[in-house]
Amino acid sequence: MTAFTLRPLHLDALQQGLRMTLPGISHGILLGSGFILGIASSGASHRQILVAGTCALAVGALVTAARTHVATHARQESDEAEQLREHNTMDSTPGEERSVLAASYTRRGLNPGLAAKVAAELMEHDAFGFHTREELGFKPVRHSLPAARVWAAAANVAIGAALPLAVAASSRENLMLWVTIASLLTLAVLSIAVSRARHCAVMPGVMRIGMWSILTMALMTLLGSQLP
């Protein structure tokens, strides 16, 4: 019984970790390889290629940190405003809010009488807390450690962009070929890992990431080759 209970929790934690980590790494790989291939196809020197890859890593990480910071705090401010509105509504019309809470339990299968009783008892215990969780879907840990979330997102992109940069740094001959191969293989492996963790079909995910990766690299190479 214990193994049956723990396995879904373990899979949920793994899937959540993969969803938060792998997209950022994949984004970093595409960003770094795109910059490197674009600059390399323009006939730049090896040093210029490495400078472009380093800039892609830094810019990608900083832009991701800024975007995550803005989005996290905007969502937090929106939720706080919504909670304040809900608090004011509960103070002005407690009976109506109790009915709304009871209706939510009725929709879940309780009969109206029992739902009204449950709603009344819950609101006596922690009216605001239960109402925000049941009606608005807020959770106490929703905005935990926003700074850690920001820097983790930036680190994921930086880790991804470091891969094509490392390959470029170690490859003077056939640099574009090795960067392309290493990036595509890593992206395919990441896609397979996500699909297996979610118990989904592997090939559709690999095909999607492969299609967009090849398109991105081809366009960046084309753009670079057209530079004067």
Automatic annotation (TrEMBL):
Entry-linked InterPro entries: Ccc1_fam
Compartments in which it is found: Endomembrane system
Bilayer topology term: Multi-pass membrane protein
Domain of life per record: Bacteria
Region described as Disordered: 73-97
A Pfam family assignment: VIT1
Keywords: Membrane, Transmembrane, Transmembrane helix
Transmembrane segments: 20-40, 150-169, 175-194, 206-227
Keyword tRNA-binding: no
Biased composition (Basic and acidic residues): 74-97
Protein name (record): VIT family protein
Source organism of the structure: Viridibacterium curvum
